[in-house]
């Protein structure tokens, strides 16, 4: 391993580089979790570092500025500066000037990866070849984030007097769990997390923007009490050519233990999928996939739509380039007459709600009583 430094906001920020022994397939750019308030680029377990490098990839573990010493705008700027530094110095850092790159984030790091990919796209710069988004999110407006968290409120309350003043403190780019986790718990208990991040609004990626991101490999646990599972579901159905590996009943960062079977399967699957994406003969398309409640059709390709009524009443078959609710078989998405609940699930995930009273599914008839 070799450590480099890049500058942002007057701070020298380190990045740890782990190299594959030969010409790599791509370089993974890793962003750690920690609620944007704690953590370090060196937190990725050594087993995963070894697996990634042995599979033929370089790995760059980034650090970035942390809250509350730095506002969210500076945090995002530091992540952006680190990525641009790497792209402009690939020959020096990894020895391959044309090496494609992949953004890899866990939890808050996945938020940074999604935000960076969208910013890079909007600026017309070189897009990442793929994204690894582990139990992440793409905005801070969810009630569990913007208000007091039910789960964290169930823990012993941290009193205000235990929270030090960070006003005027020097910027930080690393902080241990032991040192700062209590601050994150306090922020989530009081509904002050966006406030402590200095999130004044506008720091998010919309669902329509997700539709133009590169292929993504996602995972999350249904038992996640830190980041709502719905975020990964929504990103999966919105990002073209994405795959989603859900696990059931485990904790938020379930891959913290590299010896766990689910953890081993996760990284094996992510690497296998990435090999396939990089070796794909056909180019990745950025056509929009925008399923929105309230429209008569959900768009799978430009100028290609099919009504919910058609799907629900007589079935339909059409070509797509993405997996929808794991139903992708040979590039074809097949909705049978008995499966309109899958279409409902697709729409309701996007809506973040349960089935409204105005929409009923009749299993016996295989139809919707009302189409939006």
Description of the structure:
- The protein contains 13 helices and 15 strands.
- It has helices spanning 46-54, 72-88, 90-94, 108-123, 143-146, 150-153, 177-190, 193-197, 207-210, 230-238, 261-278, 308-314, 340-351; strands at 2-8, 11-18, 26-31, 57-62, 101-106, 130-134, 216-221, 243-247, 297-301, 304-307, 316-319, 328-329, 332-335, 361-362, 367-368.
- An eight-stranded mixed sheet has the order 1-2-4-3-5-6-7-8, with helices on both faces.
- It is an alpha/beta fold and 372 residues long.
Structural class: alpha/beta
Major sheet: 8 strands, mixed
Number of H- or I-type helical stretches: 13
Give the N-to-C terminal Cα separation.
Answer: 55 Å
The percent of residues in helical segments reads 25-40%
> What is the strand arrangement across the widest sheet?
1-2-4-3-5-6-7-8
Q: Radius of gyration, Cα only, in angstroms?
A: 21 Å
Order of helices and strands: EEEHEHHEHEHHHHHEHEHEEHEEEHEE
- Indicate the overall shape: globular
SSE blueprint and pairings:
Blueprint: E1 2-8, E2 11-18, E3 26-31, H1 46-54, E4 57-62, H2 72-88, H3 90-94, E5 101-106, H4 108-123, E6 130-134, H5 143-146, H6 150-153, H7 177-190, H8 193-197, H9 207-210, E7 216-221, H10 230-238, E8 243-247, H11 261-278, E9 297-301, E10 304-307, H12 308-314, E11 316-319, E12 328-329, E13 332-335, H13 340-351, E14 361-362, E15 367-368
Parallel strand pairs: 3-4, 3-5, 5-6, 6-7, 7-8
Antiparallel strand pairs: 1-2, 2-4, 9-10, 11-13, 12-13, 14-15
């Amino acid at each position: 391993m070799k450590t480099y430094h890049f500058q942002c906001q007057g701070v020298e920020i380190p990045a740890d580089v782990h190299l594959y022994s030969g010409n790599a397939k791509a370089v993974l750019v890793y962003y750690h979790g920690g609620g944007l308030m704690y953590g370090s680029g060196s937190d990725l377990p050594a087993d995963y570092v070894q697996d990634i490098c042995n599979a033929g990839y370089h790995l760059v573990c980034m650090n970035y500025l942390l809250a509350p010493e730095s506002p969210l705008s500076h945090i995002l700027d530091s992540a952006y500066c680190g990525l641009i530094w790497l792209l402009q110095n690939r020959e020096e850092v990894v020895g391959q000037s044309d090496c494609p790159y992949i953004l890899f984030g866990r939890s808050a790091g996945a938020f940074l990866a999604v935000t960076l990919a969208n910013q890079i796209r909007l600026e017309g710069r070189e897009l990442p070849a793929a994204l690894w988004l582990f139990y992440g999110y793409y905005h801070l407006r969810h009630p569990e984030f913007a208000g007091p968290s039910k789960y964290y409120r169930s823990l012993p309350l941290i009193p205000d007097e235990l929270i030090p003043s960070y006003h005027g403190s020097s910027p930080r780019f690393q902080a241990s769990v032991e040192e700062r986790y209590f601050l994150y718990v306090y922020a989530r208990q009081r509904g002050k997390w966006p406030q402590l991040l200095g999130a004044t609004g506008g720091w998010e990626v919309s669902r329509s923007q997700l539709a133009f991101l590169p292929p993504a490999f996602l995972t999350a646990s249904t038992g996640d009490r830190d980041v709502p599972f719905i975020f990964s579901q929504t990103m999966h159905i919105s990002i073209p050519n994405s795959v989603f590996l859900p696990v059931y009943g485990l904790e938020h960062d379930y891959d913290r233990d590299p010896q766990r079977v689910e953890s081993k399967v996760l990284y094996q699957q992510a690497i296998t999928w990435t090999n396939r994406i990089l070796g794909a003969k056909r180019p990745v398309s950025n056509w929009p996939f925008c399923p929105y409640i309230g429209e008569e059709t959900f768009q799978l390709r430009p100028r290609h739509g099919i009504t919910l009524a058609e799907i629900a009443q007589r079935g339909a078959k059409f070509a797509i380039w993405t997996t929808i609710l794991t139903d992708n078989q040979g590039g074809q998405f097949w909705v049978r007459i008995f499966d309109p609940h899958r279409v409902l699930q697709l729409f309701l995930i996007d809506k973040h709600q349960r089935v409204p009273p105005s929409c009923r599914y009749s299993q016996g008839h295989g139809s919707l009583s009302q189409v939006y």
